[in-house]
Design a protein that fits this description.
Length: 629
């Protein structure tokens, strides 16, 4: 098990938490929560051995295989699937050794090891991981360097999952995933048999995947049993009880102080007063109950509203000559509150970009009101910030007539206070950059909000603040998000983008998860059906000899059939020898001669089988060429 006793961690001289003690048992699935900077990632680093505790002890079983999700990946030339296979280090080591080893006995041992780790299925398992995270078959063969930063993070996640680990550590695994990939990852983690420790700001994801919460606040680590919803309820009850104890103690202290102040100077009461002074001094003061400071902001009311604000009539959306979503009809009134659902790559972002005018219409019409003020938060909005500008400077550029005091007050509601207000954005974390991008949009008083994955990098408190602000927003809203809490609380209807069209989705987000599983199953059947049709097409194109060249084709066909039969016979012999070599008794000292004989025989069969396969393919090709003449 993982155990920490009187653990103290500091970062840059600041105490993150002190004197923490708990145990994480094998098979537990634990989430680390707490505000940004509380010490979650530092605890991760300490568990991985990259950060030395400042006090106490932290230990885990030394024989455990640990897998963790890297936060960066180089622009490698190897294919995506090879990169993921590297996650299973033992598989990769044995595979490399099999390519170079010449000694028959060592080769036999390697084959045995390879079989014991189920090595033959590793490529298929890697392909399944990549498919679940949104990579097509063609993507899987692309070089890592060809993917964007977000997709490389998905590759890092797939590589971490590929490892046959005892301990899996994931830091913000959902940040670069869409809802489809998150639902798939939930299922995968539920089935995972090892110990899981993760950091995530997705409430629904945590509810589905973890059984314990370690919460860090006020330099204290507290272990809770249950998922995130249970944790919130338990913590709220503890805070309420703590606050009641604090308030009672304040009354007791006030009563004692009042007695002391009244009778301290009276000789007849001096002794009792001194007694109460000592009682007051001995009292261990309870601090007021404290919850992590929450953000609180609201959208400024739009200057003008109209109906409709913007409309899409019979629009086809896509890139170049390719239509991705056809016949889109949308009408945005001030009351519109839409959540966009759909499989990865179905066209949600394409629709969004068409709506805001980033993509030209391929057909149809976009009608915008003269009062339209769009607030558009793109998936990579933070990349468009001026990294040399501070929050105050960035806001001043679009609010030239507003006093600095008012701008500072506004930015404070987004967590930019003190020196952070004048700190260049290049020094900010991903969460701070996302908050700044949101603040700039909010200030401009939009009447239509278009949000494409707005919660990436936002912590739980900021997500909650955004959800509350959106619920009170006086304008139209359309949002694509992997945060089901945000979708469920802010959207009145869902639209489904799939199979080249957009339709109303009448169910809940739970229904969507079921729909998605069915859709994936249908897609798999379509792939199988396409493969079957291709096989039949190839069968129809098989050689149909004419009378003129029948005498030429017959011996070629007979030769091919003869080689095919020999190939099958050798293949059966190879399989039989492999079965014998799987028997552990064959490697005992008493069977050395027998093992050597088997290895020699297998090497001979392997060589002959390779020659026959080449000859068979050449004969088959000669037969097909002759048939086309």
């Amino acid at each position: 098990m993982i155990q920490y006793q009187d653990l103290t961690l500091r970062r840059n001289g600041r105490v993150l938490f002190a004197n923490a003690s708990a145990m994480i048992h094998p098979g537990w699935k634990v989430a680390l929560t707490g505000e940004n900077g509380a010490g979650k990632s530092t605890f991760f680093a300490a568990l991985l051995g990259g950060f030395t505790p400042d006090g106490g002890t932290l230990s885990r079983p030394q024989n455990w295989t640990v897998s963790h999700m890297a936060q960066e990946v180089a622009a490698l030339s190897q294919s995506a699937i090879d990169f993921v296979l590297d996650g299973d280090k033992e598989w990769r080591a044995i595979s490399n050794a099999l390519e170079t080893e010449q000694d028959d006995l060592k080769l036999a041992e390697l084959y045995g090891d390879f079989d014991s780790i189920d090595g033959y299925t590793a490529p298929a398992r890697a392909a399944q991981l990549l498919a679940g995270l949104g990579f097509s078959e063609a993507n899987q063969q692309q070089a890592v360097s060809e993917f964007s930063g977000g997709w490389r993070m998905r590759l890092n996640l797939a590589q971490a999952l590929m490892c046959r680990s005892d301990l899996l550590m994931l830091d913000e695994p959902t940040n670069h995933l869409d809802l489809d990939a998150i639902l798939w990852l939930e299922d995968w983690l539920i089935r995972y048999q090892g110990t899981l420790i993760l950091i995530s700001h997705d409430r629904d994801f945590l509810d589905a995947t973890v059984s314990h919460i370690i919460h860090i606040e006020q330099q204290t680590m507290t272990l809770y049993t249950g998922n995130y919803t249970t944790f919130e309820r338990t913590r709220a009850e503890r805070l309420a009880q703590h606050q009641q104890a604090y308030e009672k103690q304040q009354l007791d202290m006030a009563h004692l102080q009042k007695y002391i102040d009244r009778f301290r100077a009276q000789a007849t009461k001096a002794k009792q007063a001194q007694s109460r002074i000592k009682q007051l001094e001995r009292m261990v003061q309870i601090a007021p109950a404290h919850a992590d400071s929450a953000f609180s902001f609201q959208f400024r009311d739009p200057i003008k509203l109209s109906n409709p604000l913007v409309r899409l009539d019979s629009v086809d959306a896509g890139y170049g000559a390719k239509v991705v979503v056809s016949n889109i009809n949308l009408n945005f009134s001030p009351e519109t509150r839409i959540g966009l659902l759909g499989p990865n790559g179905a066209g949600k972002s394409t629709l969004i970009k068409t709506l805001v005018g980033e993509l030209a219409l391929m057909a149809g019409e976009r009608v915008a009101s003269e009062h339209l003020v769009l607030g558009y938060f793109a998936q990579h909005q933070v990349d468009h910030l001026d990294m040399n500008a501070s929050p105050l400077l960035a806001l001043t550029r679009i609010a030239t007539r507003t006093s600095e005091i008012e701008l500072r007050k506004f930015l404070g509601s987004f967590g930019f206070q003190g020196d952070r207000v004048i700190t260049p954005a290049e020094n900010f974390s991903g969460g701070e950059k996302a908050r700044l991008a949101l603040a700039l949009i909010v200030w401009q008083r939009p009447n239509v909000l278009v949000l494409d994955e707005p919660t990436n990098h936002l912590d739980l408190e900021m997500r909650h603040a955004l959800s509350m602000a959106l619920q009170a927003f006086n304008g139209a809203l359309i949002v694509v998000s992997h945060d089901r809490q945000l979708l469920g609380s802010c959207c009145d209807e869902f639209l489904l983008v799939a199979d080249g069209k957009m339709d109303i989705f009448g169910g809940s987000l739970v229904d969507y998860a079921s729909w998605l599983k069915e859709w994936r199953a249908k897609q798999a059947l379509k792939v199988e059906s396409t493969a079957t049709r291709e096989e039949k097409r190839q069968e129809r194109q098989e050689v149909k000899p004419s009378g003129d060249n029948l005498h030429i084709l017959r011996p070629l066909k007979q030769q091919a059939e003869k080689l095919e039969a020999k190939f099958q016979r050798l293949n059966e012999q190879q399989l039989a020898l492999a079965t014998k070599l799987e028997d552990s008794t064959i490697y005992q000292d008493s069977n050395k001669d027998k093992l050597k004989k088997l290895l020699v025989e297998k090497a001979k069969i392997d060589s002959e089988l390779a020659d026959v396969e080449v000859a068979y393919l050449q004969a088959l090709e000669a037969y097909e060429i002759a048939g086309k003449k």
